[in-house]
Amino acid sequence: MKKPEALIITGNGLNCEHETAYAFELGGALPVLVHITDLLSGEKRLSDYQILAFIGGFSNGDHLGAGTVQANRFKHKLCDDLELFIQKRKPVIGICNGFQTMVKMGILPGKKNTWTQTATIMTNDSGIYEDRWVYLRLIQDSPCIWTKGIERLFLPVRHGEGKFYTGDPELIPRLFTSGQVVVQYADDQYQAPAMSYPLNPNGSLEGIAGICDESGTIFGIMPHPEAYLFPHNHPLWTQDSALGRDLPPEGRGVLIFRNAAAYVKESLE
Amino acid sequence: MNYLITVGYKSGVPDARGMSTAKRIREHLGIPVERVQTRNLYTIEAELSLSEVELGARELFVDPIIQEYSINESLDSEEFDYSVIVSFKPGVTDNVGKTAGVALGGLLGRNLKDREGVFTAVQYLLSGVTLNDSERIAHDLLSNELIENRVIQERRSCRKNGPKIPCSGIRINKVEKHLRVEEINLEVGDEELKAISMERTLALNLKEMKAIRDYFRKSEVLNERKRFGLGPNPTDVELEALAQTWSEHCHHKIFNGIIYYIDEFENRKTIRSLFKTYIKRVTEEINSPWLLSAFTDNAGVIRFNKRLSLVYKVETHNSPSALDPYGGAMTGIVGVNRDPFGTGLGARLIANVWGYCLGNPLMKNEVPPGLLHPRRIRDGIHRGVIEGGNQSGIPYMRGWELFEERFMGKPLVFCGTLGEMPPEISGRDTHRKQVVPGDIVVMVGGRVGKDGIHGATFSSEELHSSSPAQAVQIGDPITQKKMTDMLLEARNSLLYRALTDNGAGGLSSSVGEMADLSGGCEIELSLVPLKYQGLDPWEILVSEAQERMTLAVDPERLKSYMDLSEKRRVESTALGSFTGSGKFHIRYGKKTVAYLDLDFLHRGDPAYELEAKYIKKHFDEPEIEIQDHTEILLDLLKSLNICSLEEKSRQYDHEVQGRSVIKPFVGRYCDVPSDAGIMLAGYGSLEGIILTEGVNPFYSDIDTYWMAASVVDQALRRVVSTGGDPGYIAGLDNFCWPNVVKEEMPERSHKLAQLVRANEGLYDYCRAYRIPLISGKDSMSNDSTLTDPPISVPPTLLVSVIGRIHDINLAVTLDVKSPGDLVYMLGETHEELGGSEFYRLYGKKRRNKPYIGNQVPRVHARRAAILYRALHRAINKGLIRSSHTPTLGGAGAALAKKAFAGGYGLDVDLKRFPGSAASDHSLLYSESNSRFIVTVSPQKKEEFEKAVSGIPSAQIGRVRQDETLKIRGLSGRVIIEEQIIRLKEAWKETLRGI
């Protein structure tokens, strides 16, 4: 069967394209790097791909807030193409800067057929950028196609603006009910959601680290699954190897990307 | 029309920037501020309607969920007493403003015009402070008057008149000047020649001024100049080009000069170029087959394997960081990125390293006027390198800090970048640089402004009260990232033939250096895109405005190149061509403004001649009496040079690109610094690239020879400790020295003699260990004359190394892994406490002044090399569960770190340590080189002991089941017994949250 093609948007300060591409490759998709200017000029079209990734980095330096300028550009220039992509239930992922961008575009958590921002991802309570591995619990009672069968993950966060926040008191309960809260920061046993620093690295409400839209095809996550593709990426791997324990064949971050490729093969073809 | 948009948080939304500012005001300044709220201010100077500005505010400047805004009036706010508004001075890079302008243009469907722009400022609303407090807060914490303006307003006036913005960046646009090229008469007396050099910040000495004068007396020179309408005197463009090219920064005049050296026994020798005699020679003599390019390009290149070449460079950016720590350090990191990027055909950047030598950030004393508090310098440097590195998408692999009072005068800011390239692209060797006559000179990236003018000559001077503010720049990592992304695309299609960095000396250096490859150049300065009008030709030529590269493009590929550049929205401009004329020919419009022989430009400067006299110094030797070793160990772990630096280090990205194997922090809780960093040589590869370093300025007071030997050894043994091959290591040398040229600097000739001895040490030990040096840098004016006497840094040599591990599965970390494991000491411990962290601590405790001592650690390379090979074999056989090489704080600090990194206690017996050390304190704290503390599973005991038979080693203890570190002294008595959690807490407390 033909591999689904995953479009990875690059350029303007984004910087996780290499590892995200390799993640899709390991997951069974065919990654294609496309510079944002080639999308804006129409040289490349979203409709030619089956998966879309908004990757990590500093789009436009995050100068007007993380993801703001990128979101604005998409909203005004590529709105129709993206709308169509989403309508066809093709999977979309946003990681870190990509998640910020999608929230600012309004496609996450997302109201039907509107491009209205309902939540935000704001400056960490600590006021600083941090690179640290965190424990994540994943909620399985969710429509999210990206996280099927994954109950826990250990991944690095690398952001200064990662606090999921909304002023609307009804939004978060609603997201829980609809299964849209998919990933939460957790304690080191991956049981209870973490509300306080450092387990919750940014002060996110309800420890929210990742959400999906109502359909479950659009998924945004602050920590970086593409930074854990190899067993040696795990910060504690030498403890296992020194004691003669076998390392896993691959990093668990790959699972996310494999899910998307499998979904496309099963549901869209 | 001007608009002012004020953006603030809605009530109830936390303002993290405000809260962290309040915390810093309380902690750094001791002012009990109640609350700080912050606002972003955007001044829009553009022909726009109010509704257009409103659209921009809503769509771009405001996050509607958490923020609110007002246009041209003050935003209603809660109580505050004083408002401080900080904005950039005219001409200073405003990255956010630039992005805002481009984004606004995109939103409105028309790009902003030349005279239009968006300028940013930050407003701090302070509650619970007086006017006096506000002034102090504004001056000491919120703004740097070198680059920023500030306005302080009382609440009432702020409410009534609206926020008053200090003069913003646009004003400079309105300055118009006529093109001016001055001719300078050099047919004057010596004093006047010196005065010309001084007034123009040329940093040329009399001998050099005379060499220039003599060149312009030659009849053949005069005749040729006449043909291009030039008179007998040099133009300012020519003089500036010569000064930049001949600067210490670019030409390494001290390292290339003639030194008459007298040692402590009155033996004399003449050294013709330290560089050739020691550094270049050691590399030539070792002649490693995997060396591809050393000392000829912007960075060194080695063959890592058949598919991969590595390109590495470490730079310093000390002087700018002293003036504006944030901008200076950011320019340091994004600037060194362009070195491997501008080497050969250009490398993709895969890792950064950083290291800082700083004054005591916890210092309570008054800071001498003109200097910034070490804590402020430290905060600014970190922030600059954090933002520069993170935004460029390059992970850091190594980071370190050392603290000493003498670094208060000038901080040392080391930044390095590792790049990778395929050995060839479409049949072209990537490590070679080629330019042929007829190639087009193309400048790409950022525009040129007055920023950074005289950076190269200024960094070759000590810091004095009239140090030029223009020398300070703020980097723009996003503009650079866009440029490097595009250039890598161009490289892969071979759209250009060669490229180089525009750094020190600007176009003058970049075009000048590339012209040396083809044999000449002719460029047109009026074509250079400017940030604003009003630059004289010489300023355009030497401006060090950042984020630019210079390319040599084959005329046949120019169109393809330009098309790509335009498509990616990166500005590229053809400025002229490389020639074979032998001339450095610069025009402005039709007029020739510089016409110099390339050979004179590059090789016309007379060699320095300097005298060096070594004085053997003797320092007080303490009588050591210790009641409580546990207390000493706790204090050592708390000392600035040993304590945890995690707070700042965590703010640097170390995971981007997804290749980390051994991270900067390791151990069960990921919080103890590793001996070396390892990254995958590529996705799916089992080979690993190792980076680490050696640095220890504290030994320099006693003897720079052993200092150099020690840092080479330190770098090497850290590679070996982590599993690297001792037979494949390449080194980089970075010298940071006090001024050794100026007669008025105290002990000038001794400091130069220290430099000679350091070079001898570097040569001897690189030779013995077979570590070729592939690149380096010297920074030779690290003093501050703002104080009397001047403050000079201790002579500092950083040796950075690249190593290799053939199978990353064999990598070893320092944390102990399992109770019951055996602890071994490999290598000998001697009475070598000179320059140790223990002596400094003991002196401070006993007499409020550090001890230096005299017995500096030495290195026995032959014996050490045998040990390194033995340990390497043991690691390859999988016999080692953990390994750590002691450095500052000796075995005591190393044992504590190994224990709390693994989460288990240790039983250790000092009696069993190999070597001649004969007291508990020497065994614990002597910093003897070439040692490792390793742990081994009891099942592997025999095999391990066989592997290290014949080298000095001993089992010194065991890993305990519990969490107690227990050390027995020579008497057999337990002299240290402490819970590892308490040791760790002590180690973490000093810079917690700082």
Plain-language structure description:
- Chain A is α/β, with parallel strands linked by helices and 269 residues long.
- Helix content of chain A is 27%, strand content 22%.
- Chain A has eight helices and eleven strands.
- A nine-stranded mixed β-sheet of chain A has the order 2-1-3-4-11-10-9-6-7, sandwiched between helices.
- The longest helix of chain A is centred in the C-terminal third of the chain and has 15 residues, at 254-268.
- Chain A is globular, with a radius of gyration of 17 Å.
- The mean pLDDT of chain A is 95.
- Chain B has 994 residues and is an alpha+beta fold.
- Chain B is built from 31 helices and 41 strands.
- Chain B has a seven-stranded mixed β-sheet, sandwiched between helices.
- In chain B, α14 packs parallel to α15 (374-392) and α22 runs parallel beside α31 (980-989).
- Chain B is globular, with a radius of gyration of 29 Å.
- The model of chain B is unreliable at 168-176 and 465-469 (pLDDT under 50).
- At the A-B interface, α1, α3, β5, β6 and α7 of A face α1, α2, α3, α15 and α17 of B.
Which architecture of chain A would the CATH scheme give at its second level? 3-Layer(aba) Sandwich
What is the terminal-to-terminal distance of chain A? 10 Å
Strand order of the largest sheet of chain B: 18-20-17-21-19-22-23
Shape assignment of chain B: globular
Tell me the β content of chain B: 15-25%
Just name the CATH architecture of the domain at 185-251 and 434-613 in chain B.
Alpha-Beta Complex
Could you describe the largest sheet of chain A, including whether it forms a barrel?
9 strands, mixed
Sequence stretches where pLDDT stays below 50 over 5 or more residues of chain A = none
Structural class of chain B: alpha+beta
- What's the CATH class of the domain at 185-251 and 434-613 in chain B, please? Alpha Beta
Top-tier CATH class of chain A: Alpha Beta
The low-confidence runs of chain B, each spanning 5 or more residues with pLDDT under 50, are: 168-176, 465-469
Rounded to an integer, what's the Rg of chain A over CA atoms? 17 Å
- Mean pLDDT across the residues of chain A is 95
Oligomer: heterodimer
Q: What is the helix fraction of residues of chain A, given as a range? A: 25-40%
Morphology call of chain A: globular
CATH topology of chain A: Rossmann fold
Number of strands of chain A: 11
Helical run tally of chain B: 31
Number of strands of chain B: 41
